[in-house]
Amino acid sequence: GAGVSQSPSNKVTEKGKDVELRCDPISGHTALYWYRQSLGQGLEFLIYFQGNSAPDKSGLPSDRFSAERTGGSVSTLTIQRTQQEDSAVYLCASNLDRGTGNTIYFGEGSWLTVV
Amino acid sequence: GQQVMQIPQYQHVQEGEDFTTYCNSSTTLSNIQWYKQRPGGHPVFLIQLVKSGEVKKQKRLTFQFGEAKKNSSLHITATQTTDVGTYFCAGHRATGANNLFFGTGTRLTVIP
């Protein structure tokens, strides 16, 4: 597609359930980022992919969080045994690579509410 | 770890007044980017600065990258209600991991 696509756009889940959030980056973009944004807060870095590998997973808040990317394209962020503090907007972004002049594009986000 | 701080956290201005937000990194950056996020929206790329001391302008917006490549500023002249939103700086570290670190953001409110 023309932009970064994320699904679902909204998800309400019960505490303790697992959720999967999907990101489909712009075609040809090798770098993919996941961020989390709580209401009215800044962007918290979660993980970064270059191709299918994740050079930096330092932002994942706990071992309940994992992410993978296949085929250098679609990425899935999985949250196991969700907690209420996981409620936030999960934003995915992509760009061509780290080189200069490459704009990073964000998806619309997946709004997660854990009840 | 990497920290990118922005000040102020919030700013209320009368329409027509100027506005400035400052971004400071704990480590040297290879580049600095600025994003605008409207309420309820996602961040949208505004500009990227790469060179030490670089200054770029976009209409009423002026962006600067510090000589040491650790700080940056965004200045808006004669604010308009359409400028409302949160402005984030972001940068890649000069060495090490390639992830893009975002600043804490400055939320701008413009009072008509």
What does this structure look like?
Chain A is an all-beta fold and 115 residues long. Chain A has no helices and 11 strands. In chain A, the strands form 2 sheets. In chain A, strands 2, 4, 5, 6, 9, 10 and 11 form a 7-stranded mixed sheet that branches. Chain A has a 4-stranded antiparallel sheet with strand order 1-3-8-7, with no helix packed on it. In chain A, strand 7 and strand 8 form a beta hairpin. The radius of gyration of chain A is 13 Å and the shape is globular. Chain B is an all-beta fold. Chain B contains no helices and 11 strands. At the A-B interface, strand 4, strand 5 and strand 10 of A face strand 4, strand 5, strand 9 and strand 10 of B.
Query: What share of the residues of chain A does DSSP label as strand, in percent?
Result: over 45%
Shape of chain A: globular
Fraction in helix of chain B? under 10%
Overall pLDDT of chain B: 92
Q: Percentage of helical residues of chain A? A: under 10%
Which structural class is indicated by helix and strand composition of chain B? mainly beta
Short description:
Chain A is mostly beta strands and 115 residues long. Helix content of chain A is 0%, strand content 49%. Chain A has strands spanning 5-7, 10-13, 19-24, 31-37, 44-50, 53-56, 65-69, 75-79, 88-95, 105-106, 110-114.
Question: Could you give the topology of this structure?
Answer:
The complex is a heterodimer of chains A (115) and B (112).
Chain A: E1 5-7, E2 10-13, E3 19-24, E4 31-37, E5 44-50, E6 53-56, E7 65-69, E8 75-79, E9 88-95, E10 105-106, E11 110-114
Parallel strand pairs in A: 2-11
Antiparallel strand pairs in A: 1-3, 3-8, 4-5, 4-9, 5-6, 7-8, 9-10, 9-11
Chain B: E1 4-7, E2 10-14, E3 19-25, E4 29-37, E5 44-49, E6 55-58, E7 61-65, E8 71-76, E9 85-93, E10 100-102, E11 106-111
Parallel strand pairs in B: 2-11
Antiparallel strand pairs in B: 1-3, 3-8, 4-5, 4-9, 6-7, 7-8, 9-10, 9-11
